[in-house]
Write a structure and sequence with these properties.
Length: about 100
C-alpha cells in the first residue's frame, strides 16, 4: 500500500478514535464514522450471489454489514465483505477500519 494512502487511513483512524481509551472505544469510533458516512443501501456479490447491504452493525468485537436478498438476511463481517466496483461513497471508512484491524 502506498505511503500516502497509509497516512490518509491513519489520519482517518486518528479522527475516529481521538477520544478512545481502549480497543472497544476505538471500534465504536470507527463504527460511528462508517455508519455516518457509508452510502447504503448498495449491492455487492457474495459467493456469486448479489445481495444488498442495508446497514452496518456493531457486533461486539467487529463491525458487520447487514446483507439481504429477498426475505433472507445475513451479517457479514466488514473484514470479509467484498466491495463492489465502483464502491459506494464512504467506503474509505471501511478501508480505515480494515487497516486498523490489521495493525
Amino acid at each position: 500500500m502506498a505511503a500516502k494512502r497509509v497516512a490518509a487511513l491513519e489520519a482517518m483512524i486518528e479522527e475516529a478514535t481521538v477520544d478512545a481509551y481502549n480497543d472497544d472505544e476505538q471500534l465504536t469510533g470507527l463504527y460511528t464514522m462508517i455508519e455516518e458516512n457509508l452510502a447504503v443501501p448498495f449491492s455487492t456479490t457474495i459467493l456469486g450471489v448479489e445481495v444488498t447491504v442495508r446497514k452496518v452493525d456493531l457486533t461486539g468485537d467487529s463491525i458487520a454489514a447487514i446483507c439481504t436478498r429477498g426475505r433472507d438476511r445475513q451479517r457479514i463481517d466488514l473484514l470479509d465483505l467484498p466491495l463492489p466496483t465502483p464502491p459506494p461513497d464512504g467506503v474509505d471508512w471501511i478501508d480505515a477500519f480494515r487497516h486498523w484491524a490489521g495493525r
